[in-house]
Amino acid sequence: MSAPAPRLAQPKAAVAGEIVTILPPGETKLPRRRSGSARNREAQLVALLQELTGEGAGLVELNFKKSLEARAPASIKALAVDLDCYAHFSAGQGGIGLPASEARLVAYVDYCETRKFKPATVSRRLSSLAVAHHLLGVPNLVGAGVVRDALRGLRRRAGVRQRQAGPLRFGDGVGPEPVKGFTLAVMLDACGRDVVGLRDAAILSLGYDAGLRVSELAAVALEQIEGQEDGSALLELARSKTDQDGKGALVWLSPDTMRRVALWREAASIRAGVLFRRVAVTRTKPSEARRERTISDLAYHAQVDRDRMVARPARAATATYKIGEDALTPAAVRLIIKRTALAAADQGLVDLMGADLAEAINALSTHSLRVGLTQDLFANGEDAGPIAQALRWTSTATALRYGRKLAPSSNAAARMLKGVRK
């Protein structure tokens, strides 16, 4: 089916007299973006393993192929990043980097500490080294006692509490206490009413309702959404970080979210495929009308040509929105959250200033919606078990970590004491 013809629109937030043109998907090409394909990441892994094992070392192809098939693209990317870090360390040590001896692994932990890596980061990088040994089919000493002791010592010195993404809770009305700072309601109010603003509001609203990880949010397709009679919808997730076997899950989306999705779809002429797409915007400034010029209007040394002399009509400001066919990247979603927070601050929608405002914006990340939903569920009196199930975690540990400030007020002791200790 051919793409619908470009159409003109006049968003409420547009500049007075601005002519807005929306080019639907397929009507124009957006600038190409740099993106590492799965094949490129695999090639990077092979090059790193060859560098670490020495020239001519063989790779266990079966292990390599099956191990990558069992991992999500984000996990493969993390593996390449972690091995690249270890390769830089090994380059300064000399000798063969893999298989790694206990002494080299302990030295690597010390190296990571000098670079001020968080304990969680060091633990992940050691796990990646264990995977690398598996890929090569060689003995793995990452789990040796002295290596575990080195990591345990790092944790004791640095502390194991991880920096948590700033939560984007819904706002007042969820839980007994008012919510301060950036909230979902504030962010939605800050979104513009042009095509980009409609898209950003739909992303924030759907991401909060479903508690999606950023990779899941960027990949949502229309075919995954099934509307319900009351205006809500069910979102089908084929797989996730904790469901690599593809058992799937269904997530409820509110009527408000579906209205925002419908506005974005209609504005962008999206009829199938991925929902949240790139948008390129080209703007021109308005110009006033100009009468025809004569020779006396020009400076004595000015060049005379037709373009300088003819009259020009007034031209309105224009904005051309080009809707792409590719999905947003996780990095683009992060920028949308930061940009919307800045817009909210500029519009005076948050009572934050100076260092407090900068800190609050810096704390926001692609995980903020998921953290915010978790905290709202705790504030609403839900237990960690149902929350972990709703957000598709395999255990309650992460839910408790995200909601550690709110979980104590809704646990069994708090519920009992609220009734007797007033």
UniProtKB/TrEMBL annotation:
Keywords on record: DNA recombination, DNA-binding
UniProt GO BP: DNA integration; DNA recombination
Native species: Sphingobium chungbukense
Tyr recombinase domain sequence ranges: 174-416
InterPro entries: DNA_brk_join_enz, Integrase-like_cat_sf, Integrase_catalytic, Integrase_recombinase_N
Transmembrane segments: none
Name the record gives this protein: Integrase
Molecular function GO terms recorded: DNA binding
PROSITE patterns associated with the record: TYR_RECOMBINASE
Gene3D superfamilies in the record: 1.10.150.130, Intergrase catalytic core
